[in-house]
Amino acid sequence: MRAMLLERPAPADARPLVPVDRPTTAPPAGELRLRVSACGVCRTDLQIVEGDLEARRLPVVPGHQVVGVVDAIGSDVEGWSNGDRAGVTWLAGTDGSCRFCTSGRENLCEAATFTGWDRDGGYAESMTVRADVAVPIPASYPDLAAAPLLCGGVIGYRSLGVAGIGATSAGARLGLYGFGASARQALQVARSWGVEVYAADRSAEARARALELGATWAGGLDELPPVALDAAVTFAPVGWVVASALRALDRGGTVAINAIHLDHVPELPYDDLWWERSIRSVANVTRQDAREFLEIAARIDLVTDTELFPLEEANEALARLAASRIRGTAVLTVG
Ligand SMILES: [Zn+2]
Ligand SMILES: [Zn+2]
Question: What is the value of pTM for the model shown?
């Protein structure tokens, strides 16, 4: 099988992924083997490939937004059959036994492993995945449209919950700061709950897309929306954007930071935090987040914006992502 392998991290422009041909492996106990059909390209992949996130093992096949078809099943697997379509997310496994796992917070598991970082991911024609973390893909979604749901979509969905926004939040006012692929999906979920969305982005094109998708208002990242917000999610890995979102909150509001890295936490006037406002980070996802989000996506016919690249052009997709020249989510077409 063909795979794009990271042997040594380097800037995306240096084309660090190497095409290789490898034997497919039989799935071990508890795992599925997938014939990969599509894999989304995430900013986290870029951070691993370029070395901003230190490699946990090398060589490694990146990719953690994988859609494929089950073509072999290890022993001790229930609930999956050959031919089923399965999705793979960033969460590759947890220990299931620590105090976070046993209290419904497996996203905080200290022994968690991650797809395309601790184990080989989906920039390949074949991969294996733990059956208990694989996610069924709703029948209404073609493979290529489903791939962007599996990282940006799921984490965006989790961010809404962390910010206090859910199915009973009709009428609430939500700010989305940084209107990329993840925010586009979060907007559609929030609108389905009757939430008013206020979108902020530096790009006029992104602001126009937000209004098309149902935002009440779209403005710049440093602009105050016309009303005070009940909640905000920041997608830009930049501290001053968090400060800007906090300034826009009404009493009791929460800013959820959806970023693995933030350049710095700026000094904040306490008046902006007073009245029980809060700032929280969003770390990883649970398998429950993934299953809930995919069900909602199917129910509301959530639209994903994709730009397609053949598997062999994974380096090109990453270089374009590094240069902010991708609209929506880049997706590798594999099968
Ligand atoms: Zn990701
Ligand atoms: Zn755990």
Answer: 0.94
